[in-house]
Design brief:
Length: about 110
């Protein structure tokens, strides 16, 4: 905190674990901007935007189902897609729903610790 207070520029901090931040630390921040967690519609848009157009998707991929079932932020969705793309490349084919669900399971395990 001392380094931040002596810095002349703007400092931007970001977290998805605000509840873990000490209240005394929060009081010393000049501005706090809350960015809401994406709802189902936003998550679907994130899935659609982040899914690479250069990687083919199998017909069983249902992004709307993923957006509905799993409440995740954009960074988590990106991690899932990257994981699924690696799995698909390893299998020599398209991204399947199985690949995406495997990536989702891995991402959820990170949350569990």
């Amino acid at each position: 905190m001392q380094r931040m207070e002596s810095y002349d520029g703007i400092t931007v901090l970001a977290t998805n674990l605000r509840s873990n931040i000490d209240e005394a630390f929060l009081r010393r921040l000049q501005f706090v901007v809350d960015v809401p967690f994406p709802d189902e519609e936003d998550r679907l848009r994130i899935w659609q935007t982040l899914m690479p157009t250069t990687v083919p998707c199998a017909p069983d991929v249902k992004l709307d189902e993923l957006a509905k079932r799993f409440k995740m932020a954009g960074g988590n969705i990106r991690n899932i897609i990257v994981s699924a793309a690696y799995l698909a490349a390893n299998d020599g084919g398209s991204i399947t729903m199985t690949h995406l669900l495997h990536g989702t399971r891995r991402e959820l395990q990170k949350w569990a610790g």
